[in-house]
Amino acid sequence: MKDSRIEINKTGSIDLNKVKRVQKLLLDNEDITELSETFKVLSDPTRLKIVLALAIEEMCVCDLAALVNVTVSAISHQLRLLRNMRLVSHRKEGKMVYYRLDDEHVENLIGEASKHVGEW
Description:
With 120 residues, the chain is α+β, with helices and mostly antiparallel strands. The protein has a single domain, classed as Arc Repressor Mutant, subunit A (Orthogonal Bundle). 60% of the residues lie in helices and 19% in strands. A hairpin with a 2-residue loop joins strand 4 and strand 5.
């Protein structure tokens, strides 16, 4: 098999076969942008604390506001951003609205990231 490496300078070279293999498996640019936006949303400490709390238990806006020590209005704003990114969902019970993580993918993402941080 022909060597697929191309020398780019005296200290490095490109393995074209490897680059092509990975390129085929990578997400497309639109998906990469969406994933990047997800991480941006989660990079805010207040939103991350909300998501971490919801990974433990479903909560209403008032409970989250008390937990995070911000106003109900501020929590509602953060929850809207999280809902728009499909990270949290809600259910109504009478006048109360309860929030939870949207699905198991979000639970896994938060769980794995938490484990990773705990290993430091």
